[in-house]
Amino acid sequence: MVKGLILSIQTMRNEGIDKAIEFGQIIANDLGVKANFSDKRKRKVKKLDFELIEDDLQVLSQQNELKKDIFEVYDRILTELYNRFENMSEINENFGFLYGSSLMDHSMEYIQKCAADLSLKYETDLNSSDFISEIKDFKCQAFSLLPDLRAATPLALLQLITTYSLRAEYPNMETALRIFLTLPITVATCERSFSKLKLIKNYLRSTMGQERISDMAILSIEHTLVNTLDINELIEDFAGKKARKISI
Description:
The chain is mainly alpha-helical and 248 residues long. The chain has eleven helices and no strands.
């Protein structure tokens, strides 16, 4: 699904921008709106000796400027999708054997090898030897309890363990399923940063510099850690470093 979405956006980036502009011009003409890109007269600015004169600069037309902005948007979307696809592929490679179809189609040697590899990556959560023995018994148990094991998702397998109170029998299997179902594959951290930024940079702080915004955003995002700091101690430390008098 993600691969098809990436291919679709890539096609739109390569072929769809000119068509979109033409379609927009048709709509503008139907609405009686001026559809041509008009270049504004550029204000003459006095140049210093070391600066380039206007003739030496490459000036883009409004249409090319619009295309450049659209390309930047498409490239950013594609970059994010590529990153997510890589993360999802890696997660599927590690946890793919926990699907019912994988338990049915692959040999037990392959499934136990996958369980051993996963235990090495999550050695603080999973016991390798116990997990390898658990998954063999769990496959037989799930096959007898579920009407169609092949169609079972990891969530259905976890619900099976909870419904039939099998946590004591398969603790490592339950832990692996919980890890798989709760992995953060999204860009929640980035989205949280943008949400904080809207609260920090309001209309009263419209002239705030980039460095100050970054510092205040970090303080707001990491508020749990900031609340543990002693403000008076930080002020004294800052004052000591900035003091001009030499302490005797």
